[in-house]
Amino acid sequence: MVYNYTVEEIFPNILSASSQKSNESIRRLAVVLNAVTDVVKTKNAPIQPASYFALIISTLQDGNYQPSQKQDLLKLLSIVIERVSQQLIRNISDTLITMSMKYMTEEFGNEEIMKPCVVVLGRALTHSDTQSWQTSEHIKAYALLLKCSVDQRSKIRQKALKEVILVLNSSGVCGPRGGLIKIVAQVSTNFCRDIFSNITLETMGEAYHALNVSHELVPLLQPSFVSQLMDSIIRLTSLGNSSITPLCYKTIGTLFFRTNQLIGTHIQQLIEVLFQFSPSGIDIRSTIAYTELITQAYLHFSRLDKQLCNQHLQNYFTTLMSNFSSDKQDITKVTMDGFKNVIVECINEEMISQATVSLKNQQFNSPLEKIIETLMEGLKYTYKHSWELILQVISSMFQQLGSQAHPLLDKLLLGVDSLGGLQHTVQQVIASALVAIGARNLLTLLPLNLDAHPDDKTRPNRGFLLQLMKKHLKFSELAAFTDYFLPMSKVLKTKSNECLEDNRLIEAKNLDILYIQVWQLLPGFLTYPVDGDTAFKSIAKTLGTTLQDNEVIRPIVCTGLTTMINTLKAARDADQDPIYLPLHRRHVTMSPTRAAAILKTVAGFAKNFLPIMFNIYPSTKNDIRQYLQACIEAYVSIADATTVNNLFNNIVTKLLEAQKEEEETRRLKPEEKIKTKRYYLTELTMGFIKRFAEQQDVIDEVTPSNGSLEQLNTLFKVIKPQFQAQDPGIQKRTFKVLDRIMAHHPAFTMENLDKLKTILTFNLQQSSPNLKKLRIRCIKQAVQAILEYGDTSQSEQQLQQDFENAFTQGNQQGEEGAEETMETRSTISFGGRSMRSTRSGFSSFGSRGGSSAMAVSWTKLRQKLIPSLVPEIILCTKEVNKKCKEMSNDLVIEMGKVMCLVAQRCIQLKKGIPREQQIQQAQSEALVEYIHLMAAGLASITPMMVSATIVAISRVVHSFRDLLPLETVSQMLSTLFVLMDSPHREVVKSVMGFTRVVMACFRENSVIEPHLQMLMDGLSKSSESDRNYFRIMIQILLQRLMKRFDYDQLHAMSQEGFKKVLVHIQRRKMRAEKLKEKQQSHVDDAMADDDDTRSVKSSKTAKTSKTSKTGAGRDDDSDGEIVDNELSEDESDDDIEEFLFNVKKAAKRDTGDNWIVGEGDEPIDYLDRSAMNNIASNESGKVRIRKPNSVAEKTPISKYFDTDGEGRMIIEDEDQPMDPRQKMRELKKKRSMSALIDEVFEEGADAYEKKAGYRAMKQKSINKRANNENDDSDDSGNEDQMDEDLKSAFTKRTFATKFTTKTGKTAKTAKTTKTSLTNITRITSATDRYNRTRGISTNVNFNNPQHSQKKGEQKKGANAVQPYAYIPLDTNTLNKRTKHLSAFKTVVNNNKKRKS
């Protein structure tokens, strides 16, 4: 069956573009296409590309077309030829070539005909076979195509270049061995060479375009043609053209990126020629391109022929070293990157061994030695400004040579050490040398000389190497520490003791610091020690003695041993040795075999080190014990099983003995304070827990997993009585042990769920607060273990066995004290149904024995374990400890996941219902049960528990909103809305938060509509009882409700006093909508005025729209006023996360100075949450100071006040007597300050009025009034006319309104006049408000010497004192929404009457 295409598929965008665009050529092309389509349909041909292709070819050959239709037919042919088969084009390639060449020759100047002809000609050549290329027609056509690729017309040139690239990469021109066939290669090479050889100023463009052809041509040529073409291109670089030269280098570089027929000898010859034609350093682009070209040449050279490249590699460094003398950072940076790449890729083992032999024989003629000499020259003063880059190259050289850098780079290292002023970069080089050659060789070249004077030049003190080695030392010889630093430390300690005896305390202290710094090198020597299997034996005794006797060095030794064991274990457990390692990575890599051998030697000393650490642990300070614990755990992990078991048994035995001794002592002497040993014995047991989790030992075969579980059970039995200890310290350490057991042994957790539940839920109220975090962490481990073992990847049989073990062994072992059953029952009405919450032990779980089914075990887990853990989790969500709070919040969700898992395991599948649907239904029911379980906390007598319960339910609803049924959510709303009558703020706040969560998660109105009346009544009561606290939250809820429900419906449900809040919000909403419509109309008008200013006006409108939204209506409706900034932030539901997680969001840091800002005479409500938004402002503390003949700058006003070091203003007591001279200085300062403020406002007003033409228009109006002075007309009309003229002038000349950027003229005067009046009013009110805020009275002359401000009470007559008027404090006066200023005015008026 023949598939018929659509015309749009064959000729895309032609018909659609003709109907949309007004271009004449496109419409004409569409007409021709329609005509061709009609002809195809007339001949009953299928609508396919081949039909159009054949019809157009026959039409062009027969000449059955009008002359004006030729270019349209060729255009259609160039489009359809891309969609026909290759074989079809190949069959008539001769016809296409002949026709295209004919049209191109006849109408070479017609661009509209040339473009499609180029495409047709290129496609015909691309699909031609190899035999066809032997004909002269194809060669002539290809030559014509090459000519078009350098044409001056860009569109023709681009299309021709595209077709040339397709031809060069086609299968017809490829030879049997790759590359181009000889005839095509010869034609292409001659074409490019002719242009390059005859280049002039006029043909410079053709040469540039010919290089684009050469870029694709060069990699496809045979070596003989490459030689010819490269000769012409390289000579072209000597012209020094900044555009052609980089392109020449780029063209040459294609030989090193793409496969070609060149060999190493050819590359070497090409590089030697390039060295002869190096660019000058003046042309930055050419120099950079040349450097990159030479770098890529040597990298390719090294891959082709390593031996030949090794012999000539020094020429690269010698030639390009001069680039570092350039002052252009781009050149030096590219050179540095090239040096580093060549060092890593080209310097190989053969070069290094050759240089080592040459240095040993003192011949100094190897290529690598010459490279090192070149780098030595880079340390001369000539290259000073590039030393940092050269030092990075030297650092790469050390990394590449590794251990063989000594002695090859000894002189280079000494030269680096002699440099000054580049301490950081020099230290980086020394650090690389340290890792490469080791500490012993480094100190041989650069001795420390700690006894030398700091200013000694001949024997410099290199004490900085101690800190450098501490930071970077690794993969070094441990024997170097034994031979070099241990004797040094003994000498330092001896001298320190001598200084103490001679009472030279400062010198003794310095020597002690050096002594500690020397020992701090030990962890670096123990990090991947290369000779650890032999050197550790000689230093082990010293380390043991130091651990036992020297408490200062003890943490350093512990850190070193821990680091060594952990790093060697990581290397041992890594993958096998890679097949190939780069040379610069070999000296910093340790094989697994080598690491295992060293680790075996270290593990042999476990029986010596572990007893020492156990013995010194009780006498060690608490801040050092953590190092000992880590070291013990590391050593236990590699020790043999016998040693570990013996030590563990001894510690457990001593712990039991300590418990018995304390019980006996407490019985005999109950009042005596006991110094317990159980503190450190319990801590020591933590080091064995991780070892028991491993299935195999590092060296020997460890005890099987069953034996490990037996040891854990023994440890658990021993520490179990300590959970009931009265000492909080013992409880804390015991819970730490339990946490580590549960973290590393999930199997143990599942086996002992019954006991763990009893421990974690027993005596919750009496436990100390610092234990709650540990309890929550243990609960989290238990929940994670349940989820892990409940994974579907495990078999049902295994899961059944695990849970049977958990629930059948609960009562088989005796439980003392803590096994007492706790049962708490509470009943609450939840959505019309009675619910009971029970917390009890697992005592009844073992009654059914081991034959209980899997579903029964999961059911008991849901009914017994989860109810016992939920109360503590909910209560801990209100903890002060941040980590405890975060874990509790996560556990609320994790317990929900456990409930879903239990429901999935207990489901009994039914036929006829999809499995996924049944699982979803079971999970939904489990979540409802979980919420009912949490709802028991609503019956608590403490508001904190009630609030925590509501927040926890909210988190569950938010996380599992897709699984909860709407009926359950509706029931929860009806229950929780009752709590809005609670007198406690946090309870009401939580209910409001839950309401917001429900509204955000469920968009159905049916969820909240049945309870809408209860919600409105609750909001009304909350608004009356605690108006300021719930103000913003109530307004946010009302806004959300008004988006879902009708305003009239909410208004009818509201109480009388609460309706004004709804009215206010509705008014604000309508005002915002009107403002938005108005702004949109202005946008439409502005866009219709002028297309050129469309984008500018739109952006301006967007900015003013955003400003107007937040600022509109701020001065209106003081009753029920809303703080716009807070509402704008609360428009989204982003703050729901803050409520759910019970955490505060990080506030933005205020970097500016805050100033207290007042709003007139109204009192500030400091109890309002939004008070700081009104009284604190950054911009208020800044004024614009207009300097004469300069641009205004923002200057903080705090600059003109005296401040102390902390930024506080200095206010002097005016009652103190002041020196007359000082008084004059203060008076002048006040005058200057007042003059400065007047200058600010006067100059600003003058400039503003001058810009607006205000004064000129005012004078014109005054003159007009004087001329009409004798007229009988009313003066009010003249005044109105003057005001109107002033407004008109002010509008026309000044304001760039919110919706246009024109300042000279305004198209719509009627609209802008109204805007101008609003702006004038705002400017006036803002100026008055600023004056009131700053205490500035515009009616007072500060420069008047007679003016002085009154201080304190007014004295009149014979020192009579007029008392202040006192008003009783009323909390209602703090509300800004109510006008209470009249009370103050009444008092003042009455006082005036009494005076009169």
Could you list some keywords that capture this structure?
1396 residues, mainly alpha, two-stranded antiparallel sheet, 61 helices, 64% helix, flat, nucleus, ARM-type_fold, ARM-like
SSE topology sketch:
Elements: H1 7-10, H2 14-20, H3 24-42, H4 49-62, H5 70-80, H6 86-91, H7 93-106, H8 111-126, H9 136-148, H10 154-168, H11 182-197, H12 204-217, H13 223-237, H14 244-253, H15 264-276, H16 284-304, H17 306-320, H18 329-346, H19 349-360, H20 367-377, H21 387-401, H22 405-408, H23 410-417, H24 423-445, H25 464-472, H26 478-501, H27 505-519, H28 522-525, H29 532-549, H30 554-572, H31 583-586, H32 592-603, H33 606-616, H34 622-638, H35 641-668, H36 678-693, H37 705-719, H38 728-744, H39 746-751, H40 753-761, H41 772-789, H42 796-808, E1 826-830, E2 833-837, H43 854-876, H44 882-906, H45 915-934, H46 943-959, H47 966-976, H48 985-1001, H49 1012-1025, H50 1031-1044, H51 1047-1053, H52 1059-1089, H53 1094-1111, H54 1124-1129, H55 1136-1141, E3 1155-1156, H56 1171-1175, E4 1176-1177, E5 1182-1185, E6 1193-1196, H57 1220-1252, H58 1254-1267, H59 1275-1293, H60 1309-1334, E7 1355-1356, E8 1360-1361, H61 1381-1395
Helix pairs in contact: 2-3, 3-4, 3-5, 4-5, 5-8, 7-8, 7-9, 8-9, 8-10, 9-10, 9-11, 10-12, 11-12, 11-13, 12-14, 13-14, 14-16, 15-16, 15-17, 16-17, 16-18, 17-20, 18-21, 21-24, 23-24, 26-27, 29-30, 29-32, 30-32, 30-34, 33-34, 34-36, 35-36, 36-37, 36-38, 38-41, 40-43, 41-43, 41-44, 42-43, ...
